[in-house]
Amino acid sequence: MNGIYELIRSWSIIERMLAFVLLAPLAGGLLAGIDRKVSARLQGRYGPPVMQPFYDVFKLLRKERIIVNKFQDFPIVLFLLFTMFSGALFFAGADLLLIIFSLALAGTFFVLGGYCVASPYSHLGAEREIIQMVAYEPMVILMAVGMYQVTGSFRVGTIAQHHAPLILFLPGVFAGFLFILTIKFRKSPFDLSMSHHAHQEIVSGITTEFVGPALALIEIAHWYETVLLLGMIYLFFAFTPWLALVMAMATFLFEIFIDMNYARFKWQLTFLSAWLFTAVAGVSNIIVLSLMR
């Protein structure tokens, strides 16, 4: 494991960015397949094959391109590109704040795509997506601030090479980030803007009017985002690479378990709980860390 880690560190910035662009969809698609399989087993079903997400995306790419508004696909393309750009920056070891802002911009284009059509379901999903963004973004910023307090840098490369595990200094920040990760992964009880699985509702919220290639691009963008978010979990344990990988995968499985055991919250409770947890876990951790230095 350490040999693989050292090999990746020896790659140039361009090589690491290209590796993410090429390999992240494969990893994200496999994770989506594992998600479906584990979810089915928790519900007492056999479930689809692990490769099913790839079959679905290839099928969507071959479908006829049908649009309601000639502008609706453009924001989705930007959503995918900025998500890819954010992940490429992360794995290249770039500035964490720039990555967070780029990812937020990607989410903004996703919302804009939902508003491009006249469907009330799509508009409602877009409004809920905005509420989710306002709910989780403060915790994401606090994560970056906490890592800066510990390492003295916002650069992912420097943070990953810190001489001690960040989880020892940022347990509250990690707990807060784990909480809002349920929103970012679009899992119950916080999957307000769109239905990730069929167990929630028939209408798919913000993606209601997207079909064929556009829907495939949305799914691929979510694969990229999943790998990026698990990479952020990795940073908390990066001092021990094998443990960091185990914790990233354990976090992913934990989110599936949460998804299968909770019903959807209303937007008021989602917003209030996210900000409350951010204040209690994240802000208090930052304050304690400041007093200790």
Describe this structure in words.
InterPro entries: ComplexI_Subunit1 (IPR052561), NADH_UbQ_OxRdtase_su1/FPO (IPR001694). It is found in: Membrane. Keywords: Membrane, Transmembrane, Transmembrane helix. It is a multi-pass membrane protein. Its main location: membrane. The chain is mainly alpha-helical and about 290 residues long. The protein has one domain. The protein is about 70% helix and about 0% strand. The protein has eleven helices and no strands. Helix 2 runs parallel beside helix 10, helix 6 runs antiparallel to helix 8 and helix 6 packs parallel to helix 11. The longest helix is centred in the middle third of the chain and has 32 residues. The model has no long low-confidence stretch (mean pLDDT about 90).
Describe the secondary-structure layout.
Elements: H1 2-10, H2 13-42, H3 52-62, H4 73-91, H5 96-115, H6 120-151, H7 156-160, H8 171-184, H9 212-235, H10 241-261, H11 267-292
Helix pairs in contact: 2-4, 2-9, 2-10, 3-9, 4-5, 4-9, 5-6, 6-8, 6-11, 8-11, 9-10
Largest sheet: none
Shape: globular
Question: Which class do the helix and strand fractions yield?
Answer: mainly alpha
Beta strand count: 0
Extract low-pLDDT stretches: none
* Spatial separation of the terminal alpha carbons: 34 Å
Backbone CA Rg? 19 Å
Number of helices: 11
Number of domains: 1
Average pLDDT, all residues: 88
- Beta-strand portion reads under 5%
The portion of residues assigned to helices is over 70%
Task: Summarize the helix and strand pattern as letters.
Answer: HHHHHHHHHHH
GO cellular component, one term: plasma membrane
Keywords: Membrane, Transmembrane, Transmembrane helix
Protein name: Ech hydrogenase subunit B
Membrane topology: Multi-pass membrane protein
